[in-house]
Specification:
This protein is mainly β. The protein is about 5% helix and about 40% strand. The radius of gyration is 49 Å and the shape is elongated.
Length: about 1500
């Protein structure tokens, strides 16, 4: 339906008609003015909706319609160059359809859009284009304010961009023309005419007034409106009603940290264009910097200044294209205005500068669209990481007329930024229209680290302030800016360089914040732009466009400054120790050396040259240029290292013996004798988070204190010392220690330089020119607090146990010397013997200050004297059983060995190394004299070393063994004449040693297997030091492979020795070097002297159980076990303790059988019972039982009765695998029933050193209690002190002790197969027979080691059990579930032919055999008795044995004739099956069964006792 032009008298009536028609969507005209639009009800396309309308226009670029769902889905139809382009996104990505040509011909054109599932069709004048569109349905149900707009959007959407799915739509050109026949169908509904809700710019007439004449000047666009003609000047450089006035462009000044940007990635769809145009004017002196960037993922357009030229990089998704405008004779960083124009049409691109310099080209591939979701002008948060970036810094200078056009969308970015438009974000304080004022720059150069200028306090009173500047240097350290806070305030701010990185350090009152602004070193000689933006409690610092924010802990924090703003350095009147500890460069005394310019404070430029001139500042030049390298002339003397600085050289003299500018002055050298020191007392305490320390030293001694720090307020420490020729550094700042080690063999009498550098929690240690070792300190603390620094010697110079908390380093005293050490001290070091020089501590040269005498608080006792000899690395062997192991001694054709020792003992093994065959090496003390004993294969040799007095006189003696040639050995003690061992004529001249070198003794199990020529039966007791093994100088405490028992650093003489009454209740007294300790594990008592009552638990009257469970990851595999406890009970049959494995059938069970105590154990081959038959213990009295196991061998002792032993015959397994559970008071069956419960009291239970009842009392998580288990109080168990001593009742304690060994090794008839034997053979305790090596290999434990001859006990007569008279009814709760090998003495179903009686003490009918050890003890052989007396004694003993034998036979006969009891041995189960089984490499004796279970665990092999 055509629109009619109405004139004349009917004008008013026709207007009403036209308005009515427009409201029914028949036809309407839009004038295209800014803000024109027509608003309709929303359209819901769903998956089958449609829309159609007709239009005519003369504009090639215009928005036809737009609708979205308020989220990410939208439809946009516009004209682009006369072509209709439909862009839509339903959540699965943007799709573009184009149709038609020259649609701006002022003719009617029909547009139709149809949805059919995922198919979307655009039809223009019957020409269709269809695309498949994935995504969700278009959803408008969730919003009520989504409308259909034609021709444009209202102006208020400028401030509501976040509500649009396509924000760029507001910048599309408005539609000017006619629209008619608008229909749409929502969700396949009926086709309807929508209702116009609102509009602006709709014409009441279709007459074009501009056809009469265009009044607009300078290219302004003429528009016809109801108000008459209108000129649109938005796209030209003029303004006014007729575009007659030239616009004054707004310029923006960027200081290196500011920029414009938009980010549509989180707002909606990006801007997508086929054609682009960028224009801008710029002015700068900076040769590198980002000008413009826009892109989205792989698409981007990047324009930057590079080396004074313009470089462009573009990528449309199929490869990058790069071009550059760089005239040979022109640079664009000349501080003049330049005009840049970049055009792109699809793949063709051109760049033009100043209309003269041009470059053009085309991109690769077929893609032509550029997607823009982000845009940056003059900078970005991280320029170097932008796609296509060829520079790393932001732009610094001025820009104006920055305009970007993407197809129809035209953005005047400078104008939008100035107006704070919702699309554009302005980062930083961009200065508008002040370019001319700020561009002029007069740089200065700080020539020395002490040069500085001062400026007024930085004004931050308005809660918004800024500082911008440029710097350029090659030096790594220096304070650039510093302003202190008000008096009594902790506020301050500083910008400094340290180790090449830039830091902002600021404190707003609630704690210091340290922001690292650089990710790469900035001392590269290139200019760097810095911008600091203060916004009250928060802000940021930007370096070359990379922004790092900070936020105070308290929201109300404000910076309160006072005093001068220092630039370049800090006034030398300010003590560096009073600076904030977080200012690392300031604390270390570093000033800035380099170029500095363009300082702008709060938007005001600072004239640096004028300030320097006014203040008569020294060391400041009025230029900024980089000079030629300064080190080419080698200015540093005495091999000092020349380092290039900024227009200067710096001589590093730390590794030389000289100081000053060119290393021309000899440094002060101090010598220490092991007791001398240097002590420096600082005037005030200083707290540091960073230290630079260096020290030169020379010594021949492998150990010694170099320096250490401590504080009288904290426990912080930093200690540097020599340890075995290596440098070690320990640092602890209150949250844990860290140790670093560098170098080796530094005691070579040469000068070495050690360097320490700490930066908060990062610490480096280096020696000489080697690569440093770097570590991180544990915890969060990073401030070291120091009151003293000791170098060389420390003896009460620093008080011990100083109070305080560990979080700060306070320098008050610095000491250099030796540190005395206590016998049991930890962390102490021997005194340094040697020379030191060049101590540099945070730029303080303390040795030079001490020599000059200018400082009174330096105390020096070190002398210029020669080094004195001292004992190196002394250690104390505090127990005769102590020893250490080192790697095998290398004794070849030539070797040397030396050590020093001091002792009061006249005997003891000092060194031992076994070898192949008969070879061995040993040194021992015997009778106060030293013996060198060895065997090279030609027989053992024992050589007494020449000395004019006994050596156990508690004085130091030096021993030196030297083999200077193959046939001669020299051994000397002190200055005595050496003993010469001539090997001429010997058939064997080479040691063939293997295994470890034992120092101070060997394992107890090895003494009886040592070569007979070695008399020692215990280890060395005393002090030993200065050990030198062919030049290897080990520190035993720190370098030993193994340390057994008590070996400590240092040496002190013995003070206390074991006495017969040292330990009560048969506790074992263990002699230490200067003390003793009581081992109470086998007494059931506790306390220092085994006289305190141990924890006791009562079980009963009903069943009760206490269980100790090993954690799953801590279940041990034991070769030996020790179990001891005390108890009182009236029970005849019960389990006291049961130890079970987790995954194997291994177990140990201590039980009562008919009132007698038994232990049954099984390590994988058979049940082995051992017990005390002759003493019932269910008498209600207190009894102590001790059980020990070494491999398959075991002993048991009740009270003071004779110890019973067991040594099973045949090949046995000896490892208890995966100990998991210890049951006390009974045992548990598989169904969880407590079987054979104990009723009574158990005290002082110790199992392998674990005091289980003590853990139960402490409610340890590994303990569980079930049913009747009660803790006994000490008063309720006092009766247990009355230990029954029916054996030897009239003997005193001394007699008991003197005969205990005899009683323990002379067993009576009982459950005794063999005497314990801790060597190879039947007693091998390893699950792998390959581990059963020859005696003396040093691999056995030392649970039981008999050292006396045991006479063979006559075999008791065997008995034949009588037939069973009556069956025994099982009454135990686990009869049906118990399996063989469960440790019970009685089984559920005894084999036929055997009689089972209970209630009678049994007599063993099992043959016993005792194996003699082959050695004679002092107890078994009398001394000073004549031959006649011996013969008489033998006859008497023989007669006594005969009588005892007759009595025994009679007793056995009587027991056989009794009808109530018998004892049974299951002879059907024997060890013959072992011979047919294959041995396993993992220690299993039996072959694997079908289920791949562990072999050898046959619980059917069982012995029965009654």
């Amino acid at each position: 339906m055509a629109c009619f032009n109405i004139r004349g008298a009917l004008f008013v009536s026709l207007i009403v008609i036209i308005v009515f028609l427009c409201q029914t969507c028949l036809c309407f005209n839009l004038d295209g003015s800014p803000g024109s639009y027509a608003k309709f009800d929303h359209w819901e396309p769903c998956i089958n909706g449609s829309l159609s309308f007709e239009f005519k226009t003369d504009r090639p670029n215009a928005l036809l319609f737009y609708i979205d769902d308020g989220h990410s889905s939208f439809f946009e139809l516009k004209l682009v160059g006369g072509i209709a382009r439909l862009r839509l996104n339903l959540g699965g990505g943007t799709v573009i359809l184009s149709a038609g040509q020259s649609l701006n011909d002022q003719q009617w054109h029909k547009v139709e859009i149809r949805r059919n599932g995922e198919q979307t069709t655009l039809t223009v004048d019957k020409i269709e284009h269809t695309r498949t569109l994935h995504g969700n349905e278009f959803d408008l149900n969730s919003t009520d304010d989504r409308y259909f707009f034609i021709g444009g959007l209202p102006d208020d959407y400028d401030q509501k961009l976040t509500t649009l799915a396509l924000p760029s739509v507001i910048f599309e050109p408005k539609f000017r023309g006619s629209i008619r026949n608008l229909f749409y169908s929502s969700c396949a509904g009926p086709v309807e005419r929508p209702t116009m809700i609102n509009h602006d710019g709709i014409l009441s007439s279709d007459e074009d007034l501009c056809e009469r004449g265009n009044p607009c000047l300078n290219g302004g666009m003429c528009l016809t409106t109801d108000d008459g003609l209108m000129c649109d000047c938005t796209r030209i450089e003029f303004d006014g009603d007729r575009c007659e006035t030239e616009k004054i462009p707004s310029d923006a000044t960027f200081l290196g940290a500011q920029y414009f940007s938009y980010d549509l990635s989180s707002r909606g769809d990006p801007i997508i264009s086929n054609n682009d145009q960028l224009t801008l004017d710029f002015r700068t002196k900076q040769s590198n910097g980002l000008l413009f960037f826009t892109g989205d993922s792989n698409d981007y357009l990047n324009v930057a200044m590079k080396d004074g030229g313009i470089i462009l990089t573009i990528n449309l998704g199929s490869g990058s294209y790069e071009t550059e405008v760089r005239p040979g004779h022109v640079r664009f960083d000349d501080n003049r205005w330049h005009h840049l124009l970049i055009k792109r049409e699809a793949r063709e691109i051109s760049m033009e500068v100043d209309g003269v310099y041009r470059k053009s080209g085309s991109t690769t591939g077929e893609f032509t669209l550029l997607s823009s979701s982000v845009l940056y002008v003059a900078g970005s948060p991280n320029t170097v990481l932008l796609p296509g970036s060829r520079v790393k810094s932001n732009f610094k200078g001025c820009m104006r007329k920055v305009r970007y056009q993407a197809d129809n969308v035209q953005l005047d970015l400078t104008d939008l930024a100035k107006k704070s438009h919702g699309l554009i974000s302005v980062v930083g304080e961009v200065l508008f229209n002040r370019c001319q004022e700020l561009v002029e720059s007069h740089p200065i150069t700080f020539l020395t680290p002490t040069s500085y200028i001062t400026l007024p306090t930085w004004d931050v009173s308005l809660k918004r302030a800024s500082i911008a500047f440029q710097f350029q240097t090659t030096e790594p350290n220096g304070v650039i800016l510093y302003n202190s806070g008000q008096l009594a305030k902790s506020d301050f701010f500083a910008i400094e360089l340290l180790d090449g990185h830039l830091y902002l350090v600021i404190n707003l009152g609630s704690g210091t914040m340290k922001v690292k602004a650089s990710k790469q070193p900035v001392n590269d000689g290139e200019p760097h732009e810095v911008y600091l933006d203060y916004q009250g409690p928060q802000g940021y610092i930007t370096l070359d466009g990379q922004k790092e924010p900070y936020t105070s802990k308290e929201k109300g924090d404000l910076l309160q400054l006072d005093g001068y703003l220092f630039v370049g350095a800090i006034n030398d009147h300010v003590d560096a120790s009073t600076l904030p500890k977080e200012m690392w460069s300031g604390m270390l005394g570093h000033g800035y050396v380099g170029c500095f310019q363009d300082l702008v404070i709060n938007g005001n430029k600072v004239d640096l040259v004028a300030a320097a001139t006014l203040q008569l500042a020294e060391g400041i030049a009025e230029y900024c240029r980089r000079m030629e390298p300064q080190c080419l002339s080698y200015p540093c003397m005495h091999q000092g290292i020349c380092v290039e600085g900024w227009n200067r050289f710096v001589c590093d003299c730390r590794a030389t013996g000289f100081i000053d500018n060119v290393c021309q002055t000899a440094s002060t050298t101090l010598r220490y004798d092991g007791t001398q020191y240097v002590k420096v007392t600082m005037p005030e305490e200083s707290l540091t988070e960073a230290e630079d320390i260096s020290l030169r030293f020379r010594t021949m001694h492998p150990n010694g204190l170099l320096f250490m720090t401590s504080s009288d307020k904290t426990t912080d420490v930093m200690e540097l010392y020599l340890d075995s020729g290596s440098i070690k550094l320990n640092v602890d700042v209150g949250s844990g220690a860290k140790s670093l080690t560098v170098g080796n063999v530094l005691n070579d009498d040469r000068w070495h330089t050690v360097f320490i550098k700490r930066r908060a929690q990062t610490i480096e240690l280096a020696i000489d020119g080697h690569r440093p070792v770097t570590e991180k300190l544990p915890g969060q603390e990073n401030t070291l607090s120091t009151r003293y620094i000791v170098l060389g010697y420390k003896d009460r110079v620093i008080p011990g146990d100083l109070p305080g908390e560990a979080d700060e380093l306070e320098f008050r005293n610095i000491d250099l010397g030796q540190e005395m050490k206590d016998d049991n001290s930890v962390g102490d070091h021997s005194g340094f013997i040697g020379s030191m020089q060049q101590l540099m501590f945070n730029q303080n040269y303390f040795f030079e200050l001490a020599k000059s005498g200018r400082i009174e608080n330096i105390e020096v006792t070190a002398k210029f004297s020669t080094d004195d000899y001292v004992v190196r690395d002394p250690v104390t062997f505090k127990a005769a059983s102590a020893f250490a192991t080192l790697p095998c001694l290398h004794a070849y054709k030539k070797f040397s060995l030396s050590f020093q020792f001091k002792t009061t003992e006249d005997s003891g093994l000092v060194l031992f190394n076994s070898g192949r065959g008969q070879d061995f090496f040993a040194i021992e003390l015997n009778g106060g004299y030293l013996y060198y004993i060895y065997n090279m294969g030609a027989g053992a040799q024992s050589i007494q070393i020449n000395s004019n007095q006994k050596l156990n006189n508690n004085k130091w003696h030096e021993v030196r063994l030297l083999r200077p040639e193959l046939h001669k050995q020299l051994i000397r003690v002190d200055d005595n004449t050496p003993t010469v061992d001539n090997l001429g004529g010997s058939q064997a001249l080479h040691f063939d040693l293997e295994g470890s070198l034992f120092v101070g003794g060997v394992r107890k199990t090895m003494y009886h297997s040592l070569p007979k020529v070695i008399t020692s039966r215990h280890g060395f007791l005393g002090c030993l030091g200065s050990l030198d093994l062919n030049g290897y100088l080990p520190n035993l405490v720190k370098e030993a492979d193994t340390i057994h028992q008590s070996i400590v650093e240092g040496c002190k003489g013995p003070t206390t020795q074991c006495q017969p009454d040292s330990c009560a209740n048969d506790g074992r007294c263990v002699q230490q070097w200067n003390s003793y300790v009581c081992d109470c594990d086998s007494t059931s008592y506790s306390g220092p002297t085994c006289s305190d009552e141990s924890t006791s638990y009562r079980f009963g009257p009903t069943e009760g159980l206490l269980t100790f469970s090993y954690p799953a990851y801590q279940q041990p595999n034991t070769v030996g076990d020790n179990l001891a406890l005390g108890f009182t009970t009236y029970s005849k049959d019960a389990v006291l303790v049961r130890i079970d494995s987790e995954n194997f059938d291994d177990y140990i069970e201590m039980e009562l059988v008919n009132g007698n105590i038994f232990v049954v154990y099984n390590m994988g081959t058979a049940d082995h019972p051992i017990g005390e038959l002759f003493k019932p213990v269910n008498d209600g009295k207190y009894h102590v039982v001790r059980f020990t196991r070494s491999g398959p061998n075991a002993t048991i002792q009740v009270d003071d009765l004779i110890m019973q032993t067991k040594n099973p015959r045949g090949q046995q397994l000896g490892v208890f695998n995966n100990q998991a559970f210890v049951y006390v008071g009974g045992k548990k069956t598989e169904d969880g029933v407590i079987a054979r419960p104990f009723e009574g009291t158990i005290s002082g239970l110790v199992m392998n050193g674990i005091r289980i009842l003590d853990l139960a009392e402490a409610d340890d998580s590994r303990i569980t209690k079930e049913k009747s288990v009660y803790l006994e109080h000490s008063g309720a168990i006092s009766a247990r002190k009355k230990i029954t001593k029916e054996i030897l009742p009239n003997k005193d304690v001394t007699e008991m002790q003197s005969t205990m060994g005899l009683r323990q090794t002379t067993p009576k008839l009982g459950v005794t197969d063999d005497i314990i034997f801790s060597g190879a053979g039947a007693g091998c305790h390893s699950d792998d027979e390959d581990d059963c090596t020859s005696v003396g290999s040093g691999i056995e434990d030392d649970i039981i080691t008999p050292t006396v001859i045991i006479k063979t006990t006559p075999h008791p007569p065997t008995t034949t059990p009588r037939p069973r008279k009556r069956p025994i009814t099982c009454v135990e709760p686990d009869c049906n579930s118990r399996t063989k090998g469960n440790g019970d003495i009685f089984g559920p179903t005894p084999d036929p032919g055997y009689t089972d009686y209970r209630g009678v003490t049994p007599v063993y009918g099992m043959p016993n055999s005792l194996t003699p050890t082959g050695e004679t003890s002092k107890e078994s052989v009398g001394s000073g008795i004549g031959a006649t007396l011996n013969i008489g004694l033998i006859i008497g003993i023989a007669a006594g044995v005969l009588v005892a034998l007759l009595i025994l036979i009679f007793a056995l006969y009587k027991f056989r004739t009794r009808s109530e009891g018998t004892y049974k041995v299951d002879e059907s189960q024997n060890f013959s099956y072992l011979e047919s089984k294959k041995q396993q490499g993992n220690g299993a004796l039996l072959g694997a069964n079908e289920n791949n279970k562990r072999g050898g665990k046959k619980k059917d092999v069982k012995e029965w006792y009654v």
